[in-house]
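Sample entry was shown:

___
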Amino acid sequence: MDCYTANWNPLGDSAFYRKYELYSMDWDLKEELRDCLVAAAPYGGPIALLRNPGRKEKPASARPVLEIYSASGVPLASLLWKSGPMVSLGWSAEEELLCVQEDGVVLVYGLHGDFRRHFSMGNEVLQNRVLDARIFHTEFGSGVAILTGAHRFTLSANVGDLKLRRMPEVPGLQSAPSCWTTMCQDRVAHILLAVGPDLYLLDHAACSAVTPPGLAPGVSSFLQMAVSFTCRHLALFTDTGYIWMGTASLKEKLCEFNCNIRAPPKQMVWCSRPRSKERAVVVAWERRLMVVGDAPEGIQFVLDEDSYLVPELDGVRIFSRSTHEFLHEVPVASEEIFKIASMAPGALLLEAQKEYEKESQKADEYLREIQELGQLPQAVQQCIEAAGHEHWPDMQKSLLRAASFGKCFLDRFPPDSFVRMCQDLRVLNAIRDYHIGIPLTYSQYKQLTIQVLLDRLVLRRLYPLAIQICEYLRLPEVQGVSRILAHWACYKVQQKDVSDEDVARAINQKLGDTPGVSYSDIAARAYGCGRTELAIKLLEYEPRSGEQVPLLLKMKRSKLALSKAIESGDTDLVFTVLLHLKNELNRGDFFMTLRNQPMALSLYRQFCKHQELETLKDLYNQDDNHQELGSFHVRASYAAEERIEGRVAALQTAADAFYKAKNEFAAKATEDQMRLLRLQRRLEDELGGRFLGLSVHDTVTTLILSGQNKRAEQLARDFRIPDKRLWWLKLTALADLEDWEEIEKFSKSKKSPIGYLPFVEICMKQHNKYEAKKYASRVGPEQKVKALLLVGDVAQAADVAIEHRNEAEMSLVLSHCTGATDGATADKIQRARAQAQKK
């Protein structure tokens, strides 16, 4: 253990810091880091170097080289920089490289050097050029802050949703600030800058002068400033050699340290662990590295070569031409187990396990000591936690063996934490491998989450490893394997040296019917890469027509889209394609396409009936469908034409169409309608009133109501209205007029073709029993009972029914007998029934 703690360095009495090597860098750097623009992504992310930015000693023809490496120094991409002069580099939270040019244009590249997009920071930045820039991270995403040549600041808090903010002007600022940085307070991005001995805080509305509390006197300038990884703390390096540390709100001072060095540092970053009370800052000069905090003495390291600091959630990564190291505060669990002469339960359990392997009785003594204090569960938990914070697999195994050994002596220790730690460490060790180059710590891994880690493996095109992790952790397919296979397929379609047929077959063999995989998304990526035929082949594997059709339309394969929509049976989808085709094709080609698809033609006709009547007429004309064309003109004559001449002309066109369709009945009916319209127009001219648009029956009724009986009869003869129907119409109309005298004359004019029961019914409907009784006596024998019952003469109805000896009529009369008044009548019918049954 003494050897294990040899690289531990105390900072005060309460914390130790250690620095260990992550990788031996094998990258072939031909220049010093100081001669390059450098950007390294947090959470073990990639490193970007722009060689030769603005080097005057190089020939003018030499272009800068942008290179991207993994954290272990494995080359990922290299490209000649052919754009404008670069000012700053930085990585977004999605591991996209943001390259800020002098003209304010920001170019975005992928991890493998593929160009994604670009955007401008505005005209003011373009006119005044960029002096300096910062890439920063907030809870909303990744932002860019610009200092222009006019000494004004412009920023966007989220490059994914670009909204430029021009910050207020700093009064009296005539030159660039000595140092500046971005901060996020209350969900708003601010800029803190130093001008001589003064500090100014810029927000979207105002420029405020701020003063750090408890700052040592004599400060004439701030040389460097740093905001912590969580944006909660701020460090200021002054020209007096003092480092002030406090809250980012500048309301509370944590401590102040005199490093006795007045030279401005190259870099200054925070080095703190989550949930730790210790606060420390790492300061780097050319050949010296210093860790300072709330202690009288700092920790100093000698730098053998030019180095670069990368702040992390729980420490600082330090890389140079030859090595990549990690500096952090020793976690509490590790400190308690490994510090010299520790009697913590975890330390005793680790010793007990080692003695047990040696078959020594001391193992029992250590275990008894832990058990007597009741600290065995705590000891097991300490070993599990410490294993997570160890970088080397041998030490992880040693601590986990100790935890497993201690668990054997506990009855009810839950195994979840042990199993989960074993799984997490196996994943971490896999991604820390040199060829993968993602040196995540346990704290960073938990903060990042497994889903984000899988996304980053996919970005690096490490699909097999990502799938193995998903299978090992038994993640749901939709979140794990399916999603990764979909990304793999999207990458596969970009391989243009492989034929479309081979790519489609390989993707289908690999994916099959994997749940959660959308072939349409993969096809869309293929189309975006200019491989239309491959996209069509991939869509053949897409089972959902609703996903196939929109992409086919986008690819201008409308006829194929129509076939797919029809196969799906989804009418909404068919309508969508039809409307697209209508806008895309000329009218003739569109109609010819519909003729080859009967279902689509039928649906389009339905649509036209409600939306585009003229198009419907054109369809009927093209198909020589005279029957439907005639029906169309009939409907159009009433829907569109108000003038009688226009309506008659439309009906004449309809009649001609019906004759062509050999539908003589429809043609004759249409001609009759034309004749009726002309007659109605004449009646309106002669009699006044409204006749146009009425049916033949209504026209007759209106004439009778107007007292034009002879004209009504003539109209009935002209249009061959049967006598029965005419009598009904006349009877109903006269009853509505309550012209009882005319009704009586009408009934005696000749023998009624409808009988006299309708007269009784009409009179009773008008509540005129007196008139109804006149006609009841004239009703024929077969309807006599019904007529008598209608006028309320139950007794006489009973006599007629008995006389007819009709069982149905007697039952009908009985049903109308009510109470004592009709009791004699009911008895009379019952006796008649009895006599009839005896016979």
Notes: The chain has a mean pLDDT of 85. The two ends are 129 Å apart (CA to CA). The longest strand covers residues 15-24.
